Amino acid sequence: MSFNTFGHLFRVTTFGESHGPAIGCVIDGCPPRIPLREADIQPYLDRRRPGQSRYTTQRQEPDTVRIISGVFIDEITGAQVTTGTPIALVIDNLDQRSKDYSAIKDKYRPGHADLTYDIKYGLRDYRGGGRQSARETAMRVAAGAVARKIVPDLKIRGALVQMGPHRVDRARWDWDEVDKNPFFCPDAKLAAMLGDYLDDLRKKGSSIGAVIEVVAEGVPPGLGAPIYGKLDGDLAAALMGINAVKGVEIGAGFRAAELSGEENGDEMRIGNDGKLRFLSNNAGGILGGISTGQPVVARFAVKPTSSILTPRRTVDRYGHETEISTTGRHDPCVGIRAVPIGEAMVACVIADHYLRQRGQVGDTPAWPFAPPAR
Amino acid sequence: MSFNTFGHLFRVTTFGESHGPAIGCVIDGCPPRIPLREADIQPYLDRRRPGQSRYTTQRQEPDTVRIISGVFIDEITGAQVTTGTPIALVIDNLDQRSKDYSAIKDKYRPGHADLTYDIKYGLRDYRGGGRQSARETAMRVAAGAVARKIVPDLKIRGALVQMGPHRVDRARWDWDEVDKNPFFCPDAKLAAMLGDYLDDLRKKGSSIGAVIEVVAEGVPPGLGAPIYGKLDGDLAAALMGINAVKGVEIGAGFRAAELSGEENGDEMRIGNDGKLRFLSNNAGGILGGISTGQPVVARFAVKPTSSILTPRRTVDRYGHETEISTTGRHDPCVGIRAVPIGEAMVACVIADHYLRQRGQVGDTPAWPFAPPAR
Amino acid sequence: MSFNTFGHLFRVTTFGESHGPAIGCVIDGCPPRIPLREADIQPYLDRRRPGQSRYTTQRQEPDTVRIISGVFIDEITGAQVTTGTPIALVIDNLDQRSKDYSAIKDKYRPGHADLTYDIKYGLRDYRGGGRQSARETAMRVAAGAVARKIVPDLKIRGALVQMGPHRVDRARWDWDEVDKNPFFCPDAKLAAMLGDYLDDLRKKGSSIGAVIEVVAEGVPPGLGAPIYGKLDGDLAAALMGINAVKGVEIGAGFRAAELSGEENGDEMRIGNDGKLRFLSNNAGGILGGISTGQPVVARFAVKPTSSILTPRRTVDRYGHETEISTTGRHDPCVGIRAVPIGEAMVACVIADHYLRQRGQVGDTPAWPFAPPAR
Amino acid sequence: MSFNTFGHLFRVTTFGESHGPAIGCVIDGCPPRIPLREADIQPYLDRRRPGQSRYTTQRQEPDTVRIISGVFIDEITGAQVTTGTPIALVIDNLDQRSKDYSAIKDKYRPGHADLTYDIKYGLRDYRGGGRQSARETAMRVAAGAVARKIVPDLKIRGALVQMGPHRVDRARWDWDEVDKNPFFCPDAKLAAMLGDYLDDLRKKGSSIGAVIEVVAEGVPPGLGAPIYGKLDGDLAAALMGINAVKGVEIGAGFRAAELSGEENGDEMRIGNDGKLRFLSNNAGGILGGISTGQPVVARFAVKPTSSILTPRRTVDRYGHETEISTTGRHDPCVGIRAVPIGEAMVACVIADHYLRQRGQVGDTPAWPFAPPAR
Known about the structure:
- Chain A has helices at about 40-50, 115-120, 135-150, 190-205, 230-240, 260-265, 340-360; strands spanning about 5, 10-15, 20-30, 65, 70-75, 80, 85-90, 155-165, 165, 210-215, 245-250, 270, 275-280, 285, 290, 295-300, 310-315, 320-325.
- Chain A is of the alpha+beta class.
- In chain A, the strands form six sheets. Chain A has a five-stranded antiparallel sheet, covered by helices on one side. In chain A, strands 9-8-10-16-11 form a five-stranded antiparallel sheet. In chain A, strands 5-6 form a two-stranded antiparallel ribbon.
- In chain A, strand 2 (about 10-15) and strand 3 (about 20-30) form a beta hairpin.
- The longest helix of chain A has 24 residues, at about 340-360.
- The radius of gyration of chain A is 22 Å and the shape is globular.
- The two termini of chain A are about 35 Å apart.
- The interface between C and D is large, with 127 and 125 residues.
């Protein structure tokens, strides 16, 4: 994870600003001969795409992805596949609404990176947030779509589990509900009330935070590197690195602070199939930074959108006290669209560790129970 | 963060197992001409050292650090200083109590990395936890002591803010209390009762989780790299990578999910000194992955020790169901000793980003208010 | 240097194939507030551009570069400058001549990467060489143009010093000649005869190798990291990584094997200006992997183009013996166009080490003679 | 390759100065379950060890290596094997001859890194060369011994092919001769005269350069990453990064500049075994940065020792002109002991790329001729 690249063997570098001509990414280190077409990526982008409901920004972007490099027709199968060379993906920016930025270009929105980009670099592209715009996350979603194809049988799903004070009732959890409401909410009853809740917030010119949960099934046991390359360490970096995220937890997470050793440790038995079976999953599928084979469960907290209509006290870049009120197109709850982004980041981390494990160890040992060949 | 190295310009690589001859680390990329003696490092190790109270493991290790390389006498000042070449630090393992491991070497403690090391590598050093032992963290503390010397005026302090159901009362927070009790607890009243609480747990052969808070003051504004090298992303990786950590949050953290945009965004004013002043610090000193100049505030949750006396259901490495009960020397609350470790990881991340910022941008621009030279 | 990215702080990632829609690169870690327009890059691309003389491939590509991201108008100076975020550069491929590849798609040109891409990845984009095409080097030249702007007073020039058996006479070296002939040859007399020499080769359907020399003046002393991050080590990787390069040397290079210690070591005196002065430059400006302040001198050998008209014995990808003869548009001496590419790689390495040095040490110490502040 | 670490998946970090208590390295990313004892490493160190003939420095160091971490007994086989965690190797410095450094500590030897360490860092450990001492290379040799065990059937051998004006006659090349003379010379006739040649140089207080050739057989085809992670690029960095090396070449190397395309491209046929067969090896086993399966052939030039008895003109660190004459224990031809070092660096690079290839592609495709499964 350095600068604008993440990953060690499966490496993603993104570029582009909100109001430049395009955004894009370069995926390096992808295995060859993996079938890949735009149609494999587009559905994930469509889930993240703005303007799909009145609960997200009204910017109209088709977010049509183009594969610029790294694929070719495999003459034996006739399929378009990856070649092992860098896969460049590009999405053109179409709806860079021409607009007068004079009201905001010299002021810092409280809670926004406006300020810190100016501090760090001495200037910033203030048009639509420039590089710090959530628009960059479209490329994460695109890269995640490629990552998902690398690990066989990997299934990654995310859901909004809290918005403001409202939490899902896990007894009502239904993955099928997630795509039936504009909130990615697995609890139909909660979803039914979130619309009114958000409409009310939007009318008040306010915004609200959220918590997202991502569950990865089919993660091979043994992924993760000890100490500083831990699977959970890399997941934490990947999820905390999503815009507006302020907290990350794995499995029992912060609740683990209240558990006793007896409550926390997931006991083990042998299933009827002779395989290892856990009696619980407080570990969230990771022990010692290495995957256990249980589902990997990660959760992250997203702060409320900083761009709100309500006037706030701030300063301008010349040292004067002032007020700011943001009138642009913004998500009242950026947490909603963070669902596909979180899924994508988890996919990229798992794909990277899948290749790293194959590099260091070769095929994952069948251990325990069936010792690897010596 | 890869394998056993972390950092990009300030790079730390650790090695060693709990019951091998020694543990150590190599610090690469440290600036030259920084005064450095063992005496600069030892006090931090002494804070983390086991066996100092009956609330931590009774393993007796003086943890005396030796500097093997990377320092020399500066003839002009007469001080021993860093040379810019790799600083190797070594701590000999002295109390590798000779012991019969037959009861545990083939069984997996629930909640412990015993299992996953076996899965990943096909074998593991089971003596005292081997590489996954908390002993490795001594080297993080040592590296952190060096990191603290790199950033002028940096002050990093940590405290235990929760143990099981017991939380500090922030109205009673007193940093001076932290070093007056064996729990690094800033709330004297809470500290007074934690002794009995832990004694009771220990007698029951149980253990408990905790939450640690680390506050870094004097962090220059502008540290952090956008998108995938964010300061909070790297902090999340560093803290989640500490043994037994299951959650990390910055500033308001998970509470941000319940905040409105008005509540969350930290308003700004100009102080009497003409400098930027924030009216709150929900951001935890970081916006858009870049430091604001406010104190950086990070919190992490530590799960309870997995090595407990209470028998638990588990399996052995040959596929048989069995039970396990751990009788060795273990901390009933590993969260306690996580305080100096958390401080150290924060120090390493900030030092690394301090050098990265100096590399990319040179001296941090005085912006805002006093524009950088062009 | 990993996969398709090079550099540590100044990082360049390239993408694209010869006959895809475009080639491009992402430059990450560039300092902010550096004036940058397409016009700063284009002249370097024009020097490398094919089709400018009958001695290089006749592919017609304007190679017009577009800056997609990472620049903005600095309101204080009015100049377009870098913002510190990723700079994406794109060149569209226009002259992807529609062609029948059936004669070559299953055969391996001797001396060409056709074979090894197939071995490594199990397939390859055979259209115009795909990813292994020299076309990729346009992006190196573009990145080099940006790199040149980072280090103040840096001046990098390259020249062809040998083609086949013909070597420049160093007594006739004139940098001004380099841009006056299509061979980048500093020896006017040699340049005058190379045209006929190459015409003859081209008529015979043959090709020839070359040696290129790159000289970097204004390299600050102190650049380079000891042991594995040496300036000469990184230069060697960068130059050896140019297509068709088979050898790299610094300063006296291979001739150093024949020198005695007295002949080789560059003696030092104090100049009239009180500054360090060397009596020779066998070191090529680098001692112990660190720049001395003298000009950095690197040389590299380029093998002859593998794509020749003369039929050669080879095999096809199905295991049959066959012959191959390449009729496409190819440079009879790829070494010629390697001159601007070599310059660019040297620029990228020096810019990267300039930032790394600033990161680790801050401003280069004035030492020797004026000790740095302690 | 950054700072004091090299490698991407097989990573080696070294530390230690010539006259400190010890030198060492940490090998990270080594596959688990590889048999490894000190006895696997020691023979390689013994080949590099000083003081074995009168043609190398008379420093007496047994160079006994100790494995500090990363190995354990595999209970199934009973062998000591790697565990997949960091392997720390340490060699104590025993013969740090107490000595008066006042004659040299403030002066710069022409051709030596004395100067540049002072420039870069503002101070240096002048005792025996400190970090820039050839002593550091012992750890490269140790790491190389581990690397050799990773790639099945890999055989790496080096030889001195030139010393001053004297070159081996390749018609007399006999690998068995290499270990029969103190020069690692494969040409018995040449070896017989080098002793007198060196004695004469030593008496004159002079030194001489050399060229070393390393040949790696059994390198699997398909190793290397395109563009910036090329196998030859990484070899060039690794070999150029050895102390005193000024040039590196692969296969035909600089001679390729004089070859025509017909002469250079290695033609291919199908052997009686149905396998690919090359009719020559100008490529040195690498095409497009990827191994072909032919022996990898690398050559590097080593400059003469800078520490010579003959007085040279130089300056001191306070800006005064002076003379220097080095009287310590030094190799008259450092090229001799560069042979095992060069072998080791080649081994490390190949092991790293072996793991990288396994990570990205899995088992190397059988292609060409037997297409990989799709």
